[in-house]
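W.,

You were right to be curious about this one. When I first looked at the sequence I had no strong expectations either way, so I just let the prediction run and decided to look at it fresh. Below is the sequence, 275 residues in total, followed by the output.
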Amino acid sequence: MSDWLDALGALRHEREAAVLVTVAAARGHAPREAGAKMVVGAAATWGSIGGGNLEETAIARARSLLSSGSLIPVQVEMSLSDKARTEHGRQCCGGEVSLLLEPVPVRPAVAIFGLGHVGQELARVLVRHDVELHLVDSRASYVSGEAIAPLLEGPATVVAHHAPLPEITLGELPRGTDVLIMSHDHAEDFALCDAALRCGHLGSIGLIGSSAKWRRFEQSLGVEGHAPDAIARIRCPIGEPTVVEGLGGVKRPAAIALAVAVEVLSGARRAADVS
């Protein structure tokens, strides 16, 4: 990668978090001018803000942000004086530098299993957000180029999967993907729930349906050998309750999709991070 911008693009593609470090201001003698940038990843860096104590301090602070998972930008003021010693030594340029550290998180990944009325409405909402959106259906016509074309207008990266046995697709999803199960067939829904609980790399798991449907699924998942705490990873019904209530409890596809989108995008019910 030739520069920091290439690095950010590659890290985004590889789904690795980073911190963008920018020289926000430079006063007096400083190794780099305002606007100089560096990208800090967990194991490597790209670009430079001047080397030495300044850069080592920035890298340490950036990796601390990565470890904490914080998404809040941090401003760091540094005096480049022989009297301003840090754990990385001294840098005696004589100036002062302001650094802006901006976390660049991994984009959320969401997988919709089933592109019926609700699935299509949900995809229309999510495609307008900066997510990696996987659309999966066992019916080829529902994920054909013609069917998916209206869902490509937005910042999301859209990946369509046709899978006669859609549970196989679970293994292809990125780590931490939030899975939403809403196929046309309850047997298919159950197979997906069973397979999703056997995957160790997924994020949250949501199932569309009534409380009666969930009681049957919960019992059957226990018969398949899943422990109660594992079964509890699946939330059913899905949809942010306050949105459903605000819409008067309506069950139209667009209303359900909106409630589910709010739930997923807010992370209000997101499962614990998969390590």
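Here's what jumped out at me. Residues 52-68 form the longest helix (17 residues). And, maybe more interesting for your project: Confidence is low (pLDDT under 50) at residues 268-275.

Coffee later to discuss?

I.
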